[in-house]
Amino acid sequence: MNLEMHNKIAATHLQRQAYLYVRQSTLRQVLENTESTRRQYALRERAVALGWPLDRVVVIDSDLGQSGADSDRLGFQQLVVAAVGLGEVGVVLGLEVSRLARSSSDWHRLLEICALTDTLILDEDGLYNPGHFNDRLLLGLKGDYERSVMPTSA
Length: 154
Prior knowledge:
Oligomer: single chain
């Protein structure tokens, strides 16, 4: 763990749960892109390496194979509304966290809720604190970029 990551993680984060959101947009992706699914589940070990006990790493994979445009994504609602909104989450993990939300407004709403509840966000690129200006700026740019190059149904 690098020093920057170490400085962002406080004891209060580690006392809460780590939530790993695993998702692919279609059943075809689930069947054909098994490497992506494996990499997403492997983020559990990153949470453990950062200090979360394995029994406090919650995996939400109920949205696997569901397009964000065609479903209510109950797993995402559980993550954002129930867990993060109630301050139960120390970190949200995802392979490409900007893909958690299907629209810019949902993405920025998630960032706002995470900032208000002091919830960190971790993806393959790094660890972010949406309550810190530079991290929030970078996360906002990542989300806006993803939506400019990816189809909205994903």
